[in-house]
Design a protein that fits this description.
Pfam families: HTH_17 (PF12728). InterPro entries: HTH_17 (IPR041657), SinI_DNA-bd (IPR010093). This protein is an alpha+beta fold. The chain is built from three helices and three strands. Strands 1-3-2 form a three-stranded antiparallel beta sheet. A hairpin with a 2-residue loop joins strand 2 and strand 3. The termini are far apart.
């Protein structure tokens, strides 16, 4: 049996993948920080958008 990787995530799935809260993902979508596609009432976030979002997050370094 083949495993097919999803190309689109629901906001809930995106939240789980990003390890963020669902409401945070909806806020990011509303602010335009996370682009999404809309089909009817459904909103979906492309995998490439999630990867670009993570890649663009600033890294925090701590010095002791």
């Amino acid at each position: 049996m083949r495993v097919i990787e999803p190309l689109l995530y629901t906001p809930e799935e995106a939240a789980e993948a990003l390890r963020l809260g669902r409401s945070t993902v909806y806020e990011l979508m509303a602010d335009g920080a996370l682009e999404y596609v809309k089909q009817g009432r459904c909103r979906r976030i492309k995998v490439a958008v999630l990867k670009a979002f993570v890649a663009g997050m600033p890294s925090e370094t701590t010095s002791h």
